[in-house]
Design brief:
Elements: H1 13-29, E1 46-51, E2 57-62, E3 72-77, E4 84-85, E5 94-98, H2 103-112, E6 120-127, E7 131-137, E8 143-145, E9 150-151, E10 160-167, E11 173-180, E12 184-190, H3 201-205
Antiparallel strand pairs: 1-2, 2-3, 3-4, 5-6, 6-7, 7-8, 7-9, 10-11, 11-12
């Protein structure tokens, strides 16, 4: 029997995998005691969660408890049940994350080679004020946050609702797309090396 006003959504295998990984993470969160971190976020409400395509890395954002409290951001990976605070992102309301387009492929390769796959390629983090930061997770689980790379609003709040980046195949040319409710921004340029950190600084400075 047909269901009125029903919407059919088709998912590819990677989207299904991502949803399953997210479900596993959500179920796992029940066992996580945020009080053990002694973080101000311990008694705050979770406002959003961002899971990478490989399902191994999760960023959790917490809404301010009151008008005097800042936003909090914590990081959790699949190999640990202890979330880590990210002090450099405190007070920033994360609204979008651009994951590495090759993260899932690199994780699959590292898993088949039994090399761990715990590291996270550089990502871009967008905020409700239009700020963009670069973040990287090392194989040891250390969270590295670069300085602010760009301010889309030029001092005026500009809620970033979408963020993506990709490299031209077999090239160091990079394209970055950032969307707000009113505009779509494009940045492009070359990086001298994909091992350079921060990776995207030259793109925003070009």
């Amino acid at each position: 029997m047909a269901v009125p006003n029903a919407t059919v959504v088709y998912l590819n295998q990677f989207e299904i995998l991502n949803l399953l990984q997210l479900l596993i993470f959500i179920l796992s969160l029940v066992e996580i005691d945020f009080l053990k971190t002694h973080s101000p976020a311990a008694d705050a409400k979770i406002s959003n969660m961002y899971l990478d395509p490989s399902g191994q890395h999760l960023f959790i954002t917490f809404a301010p408890r009151d008008s005097q409290s800042p936003c909090e951001v914590m990081y959790l990976n699949a190999k640990s049940m202890t979330p880590k605070e990210i002090p450099k992102l405190t007070s920033h309301n994360i609204t979008a994350i651009a994951w590495s387009p090759t993260q899932l492929e690199e994780f699959s390769n590292s898993s088949s080679n039994k090399s761990g796959g715990a590291s996270l390629q550089p990502i871009l983090v967008g905020t409700s004020k239009g700020l963009i930061f670069e973040v990287e997770i090392t194989a040891s689980g250390e969270v590295k946050v670069s300085k602010q790379l760009f301010d889309i609003g030029k001092g005026n709040p500009a809620f970033i609702c979408g963020l993506e980046y990709f490299f031209v195949p077999r090239s160091n040319k990079c394209f970055i797309l950032a969307a707000t409710s009113k505009k779509l921004y494009q940045f492009h340029g070359f990086v001298s090396s994909k091992e350079e950190r921060p990776l995207f600084a030259s793109i925003f400075n070009s």
